[in-house]
Amino acid sequence: MAKKEPKIKQFGFFNVNKPSGIVSSTVVNKLKWLTGAPCGHMGTLDPLASGVLPVGVGNATRLFDYFLDKEKEYVAEFTFGVDSDTLDSTGTLVYGGHVPSEKEIETVLPTFFGDIMQVPPKYSAKNVNGKRGYDLARAGIEFELPPKKVHIYGMELLGRVENKEDTFQIKIRCGGGTYIRSLARDIAEALGTKAVMSALNRTQSGRFLLPDAVDFSVLEKDPSIEELESLIIPTETVLPFDCLSVTEAQTQKLLNGQRVTATQEDGLYKLFVEGQFYGVAEVEKGLAKAKIKLC
Q: Quick check: is 6 in a domain?
């Protein structure tokens, strides 16, 4: 059976503004249908959450591992004096506990800066003996998740949400893998109370920014292939590496799978061939090799 050709010829990334109320896979599946090409998102957003959802199309999906640990920014709403089995407002809510003042919250936030150990929510995609955490939790099975190290670059209290005496808005800059729901739980615990995440908007994921994102409603209108291609962000513009400079002779060796000498420091680089983006190269101990081919 002949391989089905994608409708789209240009590969790269879509920066989609996911609305609250849908799962991330809804965005991915829509783009798969529109482009006819493999697609995948970088860092899922909970159904409650909205904001930046980068989606790779075509061979750009091979690069996800290079983006997952990049810095992210969120604006979250934490509601105090309430607990939940899911750690957010979509779960079973149990009220009790005091609502802290803005000054109390501002005082405790810096204690979470830097590397911290965080226990993921049980209602998460974490794997437990081959089962997803949310499946076990929904089945009422007791289990524990080990803490993991995450990095918090900083947090800023933006203030109390209008007409909500118990809810505060906090801007959070963190590394990949951070659970904002767990932050709500842990910040409240440090204040001697309970809290859930009641809203979340991701405003940045690495080099993908919310002001540049296309609303999902645009995709729901089934844009033409030309319109879709105009929305694609070329891979080389968002890949967070410097360029590798090689001679013409070295380029041919690299393309043949050989290593060539390099003066650059050890690390990953964007590799261009005859002015065209080719893929990712790796330098190690003064030698470079082509690591991932994208063209």
A: no
Question: Rounded mean pLDDT of 45-67?
Answer: 89
The total of structural domains in the chain comes to: 3
Catalytic residue from among 46, 88, 166, 186: 46
Q: Which of residues 187, 205, 223 is at a domain's end?
A: 205
In sequence order, the β-bridge partners of residue 288 are 260, 283
Judge if 200 and 81 occupy the same domain.
yes
**For the residues of 247-293, what is the DSSP string, one character each?**
-HHHHHHHHTT--EE--SPSEEEEEEETTEEEEEEEEETTEEEEEEE
Task: Specify if 7 maps to a domain.
Answer: no
Does residue 27 fall inside a structural domain? Answer: yes
Domain that holds residue 159: 72-205
* DSSP SS3 for 231: helix
pTM, two decimal places: 0.89
Burial class (CB in 10 A: 0-12, 13-18, 19+), 202: buried
pLDDT digits (tens, 9 = 90+) for 97-122: 999 999 999 999 999 999 999 998 87
**What are residue 292's DSSP bridge partners?**
280
CATH of the domain at 247: 2.30.130.10
Residue 213, C-beta contacts closer than 8 angstroms, at least 6 positions apart: 15, 16, 17, 51, 52, 53
Q: Which of 205, 220, 252 is the last residue of a domain?
A: 205
CA distances from 87 to 121, 147, 173, 180, 223 (A): 7, 16, 20, 9, 37
Active site annotation includes 83: no
Q: Which two tokens stand for residue 159?
A: 């203030």
Query: For residues 79 and 241, what is the distance between their CA atoms, to the nearest angstrom?
Result: 39
**Residue 194 in tokens:** 């309970």
